[in-house]
From TrEMBL:
Protein name: Resolvase/invertase-type recombinase catalytic domain-containing protein
InterPro entries per UniProt: Resolv_N (IPR006119), Resolvase-like_N_sf (IPR036162), SSR_resolvase (IPR050639)
CDD domains recorded: Ser_Recombinase (cd00338)
Record field: transmembrane: none
Domain of life: Bacteria
A Pfam family matched in the record: Resolvase
High-level lineage: Bacteria, Pseudomonadati, Pseudomonadota, Alphaproteobacteria, Rhodobacterales
Residues annotated as domain Resolvase/invertase-type recombinase catalytic: 7-161
Annotated GO MF terms: DNA binding; DNA strand exchange activity
Organism: Palleronia marisminoris
Length: 233
């Protein structure tokens, strides 16, 4: 049982549009469970973040609500998050493991509405590390599988049209270089810009996607992954 006044953020997530909006009670149920736990434990909820119709398989930093939550965490001293249950945090091993790494690096504790901590203690570290590595291996395999699939589709289309159909044009080297610079940790605070913040800075500097729109956060992450500098935590 937690003693003293602790400040925390609450996080809610619904996985489909059918479970969110007027007349739906998923968010209401989550909010009530979290509020009841906070009242029992003397926890002060200082902000709520909600991802409506967002898959639990998405990485936490790619969800609009959780990305905003991470920015708030980086901006103040609150290091506790309340959720209804583990499924609200993640529904895939990759999202769960990488999300845990990211939050632990920030010193963040996640508590479920039943009072149980989401992350285990030191005795689970070896197992979680093994699971993290497995998740990363499968992520790389899926990336390679998708690359081969897209290449096969382009080859078939090229034969059909009688001309070479190329894939998406690579991001200019100067854009990748700028993204790497913006991603570097602040030497004083050790903190990095979020993917969305980097996208905004790139747009301000005149670097946008071929469509003329700002690079989205997934594109920024892919740039940094391709450059070998991206770190989930």
């Amino acid at each position: 049982m937690m003693k003293g006044k602790v400040k925390a953020f609450s996080y809610l997530r619904t996985s489909s549009a059918a479970n969110s909006g007027f007349g739906k009670d998923s968010d209401v149920r989550q909010r009530e469970a979290i509020s009841a736990h906070a009242a029992r434990e003397g926890i002060e909820i200082v902000g709520e973040f909600y991802d409506a119709a967002v898959s639990g398989a998405d990485l936490i930093e790619e969800r609009p609500g959780f990305a905003a939550l991470l920015e708030r965490i980086d901006a103040n001293g609150v290091r506790t998050i309340l959720i209804e249950d583990p499924s609200r945090f993640a529904r895939s091993m990759q999202a769960s493991i990488l999300g845990e790494m990211l939050l632990k690096a920030r010193g963040v504790t996640v508590l479920c509405a039943n009072g149980e901590p989401l992350f285990g203690g030191d005795e689970e570290d070896d197992m979680r590390e093994a699971m993290r590595r497995i998740a990363m291996v499968f992520s790389e395999l899926e990336k390679k599988r998708l690359t081969r699939k897209l290449k096969g589709a382009r080859d078939r289309k090229s034969v059909e049209l009688g001309r070479r159909v190329e894939g998406r044009k690579p991001v200019p080297a100067e854009v990748v270089s700028e993204a790497k610079r913006l991603y570097r940790a602040n030497p004083k605070t050790g903190k990095r810009r979020t993917l969305r913040a980097i996208s905004g800075e790139l747009e301000r500097l005149g670097h946008v996607a071929p469509s003329g729109k700002p690079y989205n956060h997934n594109s920024v992450r892919q740039m940094l992954q391709g450059a070998g500098v991206y770190k989930p935590a």
